[in-house]
Design a protein that fits this description.
mainly alpha, Helix Hairpins, two-stranded antiparallel sheet, about 0% strand, elongated, transmembrane helix, membrane, Methyl-accepting chemotaxis sensory transducer, MCPsignal_dom
Length: about 500
């Protein structure tokens, strides 16, 4: 049997028995100390008890079956009790012997009870053989032995059945625990399977919900498209009706168009004559523009020459300005040298001041001339820009006149071709009129078909709306199923 059975720990029983042995030994020592005092017998008993306690303690830690430990504990205790009784007969010795025997019953092993009980019977008989009076404080030792054996063996029988029934009960409980453990393992296995299935079910449920949502979204898109198609079909029917009316009006306009074509042909001839006259006048204007262009180019060359002369004057003035600045610098140096010369340099200082004044006046004159030259340059630049603009305008005018001349020539050719085309147009108008009548009949047929198509689209749209409502209800149902499934999973996880 295992040291620790399911629901019953034999190691704990051995520990309790060891504590009982320690307690019994302590009580024996206290009893001897109280009644006999600390004599040599007391110390001998102390040594014996400590030896017995040491042996039992060492045995407790030996890795053997707990039933064997229990048998040894009981035998040692019963041996100590009988030895104590042989030294001095007392009821306490028999109580200690019964305690030792009861220790074996804690293991719920009927075989162990019989072994320990038989060993105690043998020890009692041997003790009686050695010292008959040790078994009973009576003149009739055999009668005392008989009573002891009868009482003790009756106790053995009772404890045997108690142990047997207790073991059966323990075995039954252990079996139930094993069955419960197996059921628990099966339940765990089932829960794991349910968990695996729940994961697959969750994925399938999510996919199903997504598919329904996708279908609903597609239905919504189809509904929008069908609504637009239905609206377009209705508008198409209206437009076809309007086209029919417009074609009738167009037929009337074609008749009026023929009359207008004749009038246009007459007017075109008159306009052709006017175009020829305008072309001649444009050619005359073109000749005048060439003369103006030559004059403007001459003016532009003159302005360019004037600009070159002004630039040379500016260059000369810049040289004069530099000379005036150098003269002013020399006058300043002369004044400094005259100041150093003292009285001898006064006349030289006066000359230096006059030179300085002349240099200053020269600089002012040059500045004035530069200002005038600058104004002339600016006006000349403006004049040059205007002349250039005039040249550009003349070039643009020449291009426009050339374009107008070409336009008049093309217009003349166009009018001639247009007159011929107007004649052909009259003939084609008659053919177009007949085609318009045929198209009008076909448009009426198309209008009828369009109305039927619009009605069919409206019926299909109504069916889609009903299907969309069903999809919405299905989504709500899937949401409820998902909610209940999550609640079931929580219950399974918490169980």
């Amino acid at each position: 049997m295992k040291t620790k059975s399911i629901g019953y720990d034999l190691k704990r029983v051995s520990k309790v028995n060891l504590f009982v042995i320690f307690g019994a030994g302590l009580i024996i020592l206290l009893e001897g100390l109280i009644y006999n005092g600390a004599n040599h017998i007391f110390f001998e008993n102390v040594i014996k008890i400590f030896i017995i306690l040491g042996i039992n303690t060492a045995l407790y830690f030996v890795p053997i079956k707990e039933q064997i430990k229990g048998g040894v504990f009981s035998i040692v205790m019963s041996t100590v009790a009988l030895q104590s009784n042989m030294e001095q007969t007392s009821i306490g010795s028999f109580m200690l012997m019964m305690l030792a025997f009861s220790m074996s019953a804690l293991y719920f092993q009927k075989e162990l009870v019989l072994i320990v009980g038989g060993f105690i019977d043998i020890v009692i008989i041997i003790s009686y053989t050695i010292n008959p009076l040790a078994m009973a404080n009576s003149t009739n030792a055999a009668s005392g032995l008989t009573r002891i054996l009868v009482y003790f063996n009756v106790a053995i029988i009772l404890i045997f059945f108690l142990t047997k029934w207790g073991r059966d009960l323990v075995n039954s409980v252990m079996k139930k625990e094993e069955e419960t453990g197996e059921l628990l393992e099966k339940l765990k296995f089932t829960l794991n399977k349910v968990n695996d299935v729940s994961e697959v079910f969750d994925v399938d449920l999510i996919r199903f919900s997504e598919n329904i949502a996708s279908i609903k979204k597609s239905n919504d898109t189809i509904m929008v498209s069908m609504t637009e198609v239905t609206s377009g079909a209705q508008e198409q029917a209206v437009n076809i009706g309007e086209i029919n009316n417009n074609m009738i009006n167009a037929t009337e306009l074609l008749t009026e168009g023929k009359q207008l074509s004749d009038s246009v042909a007459k007017i075109s001839c008159e306009m052709g004559m006017s175009v020829n006259e305008g072309s001649e006048k444009i050619n005359h204007v073109n000749n005048q523009m060439e003369t103006i262009n030559k004059s403007v180019n001459t003016a532009l060359e003159t302005v360019g020459a004037l600009e070159s002369s002004i630039n040379e004057i500016s260059h000369f003035l810049q040289g004069i300005t530099e000379i005036a600045e150098q003269t002013n610098l020399l006058a300043l140096n002369a004044s400094i040298e005259a100041a150093r010369a003292g009285e001898n340099g006064k006349g030289f200082a006066v000359v230096a001041d006059e030179v300085k004044k002349l240099a200053y006046e020269s600089a002012e004159k040059v500045s004035s001339i530069n200002k005038i030259t600058k104004d002339i340059t600016e006006k000349m630049n403006l004049a040059s820009a205007e002349v250039k603009n005039g040249v550009s305008a003349i070039e643009i005018g020449n291009a426009l006149i050339s374009d107008v001349t070409n336009f008049f020539n093309q217009l003349k050719d166009t009018f001639n071709k247009q007159n011929e085309m107007l004649k052909d147009q009259t003939e084609k108008t008659q053919k177009v009129f007949g085609n318009f009548l045929k198209m009008s009949n076909e448009v009426e047929s198309i209008s009828s078909i369009s109305e039927q198509n619009s009605a069919a689209n409206e019926e299909f749209l109504a069916s889609l709306e009903v299907q969309n409502v069903d999809m919405s209800n299905m989504l709500v149902g899937v949401g409820n199923i998902n909610k209940k499934w999550n609640e079931l999973k929580e219950i399974l996880e918490n169980s």
